[in-house]
Amino acid sequence: MAKYKLSQLLLHLFFICVSLACLLPVILVVSISFSDENTVVANGFKFFPEKFSLDAYSFLYNQLSQIITAYGVTIFVTVVGTILSVLLIALYAYPLSRKELRHRNKFALFIFITMIFNGGLVPWYLVYVNLLHLKDSVWSLIIPLFLQPFFVIIMRTFFQTTIPESIIESATIDGASELKIFYKIILPLSLPVLATIGLFNTLNYWNDWFLSLIFITKSNGISLQYLMYKTLLNIQYLTTNENAASQLSKMGAVVSLPSQTLRMAMAVVGMGPIIFAYPFFQKYFVKGLTIGAVKG
């Protein structure tokens, strides 16, 4: 009994240390975002602000309308993209898990090849711009991330190893169609893998900035991450380029911009809403991590 309690204590201590290792960087980011820029540059990063300042958030407040617009775009892309992506992946993976599907290995090979090879950036761009006409469209931020081959393989493995074929056979004998079996039986039994892939897709859509860089030219159509990225690049340019700084000084503009603290404030603004997605997926996420594990 003593050995058992000791092992439990050590296990709890280990996970407490792991949790702190994940939590401390977040605390540090929040602390720096509320610190004075000159103090941070002089004394480095601290877990508690030596000199409290809201300069970084004041700078972001001046761009409040752009941030709200970018938030709207990102939330729409994340929600719609995640739902459609998970549904499309499930619709592709489920037939691949059925032995009755003819040439299923060829379809699996087709999706697997895309994990190794791609057509290149220029052909990829031309397809979306010239063929699909998605330039400056919100769908250009959604469609390119629709079908992730790795997620298809994960979901196919879940269908093959977790859902008994006897359930499908019983439903077929009772006269259920393939579509009804999929929506009434397969999807409710697949909540762990759907939640796991949904979480990964949510993170992919929320953190994406590259698609806005490639396809969006209108300022009211870019995502939040790209807005933050572009703002940070502009500040870095103004603070490091002497010619730009001198021109701003002649115009009476303030050159002292919060670079380090602004970077952390952007991280806080960017990661805030996505944190609320984890409790929603947490119920199924741990179980989903064991997908494909050896059962015995």
TrEMBL record:
Species of origin: Paenibacillus sedimenti
Primary localization class, coarse: membrane
Gene3D superfamilies noted in UniProt: MetI-like
Pfam families from the UniProt entry: BPD_transp_1
Flavoprotein recorded as keyword: no
Gene Ontology biological-process entries: transmembrane transport
Any one cellular-component term (Gene Ontology): plasma membrane
Protein name, UniProt field: Carbohydrate ABC transporter permease
Residue ranges of the TM segments: 9-34, 68-95, 107-126, 138-159, 181-203, 261-281
Similarity section: Belongs to the binding-protein-dependent transport system permease family.
Keywords in alphabetical order: Cell membrane, Membrane, Transmembrane, Transmembrane helix, Transport
Keyword Transport: yes
Membrane topology: Multi-pass membrane protein
Record domain ABC transmembrane type-1: where: 71-266
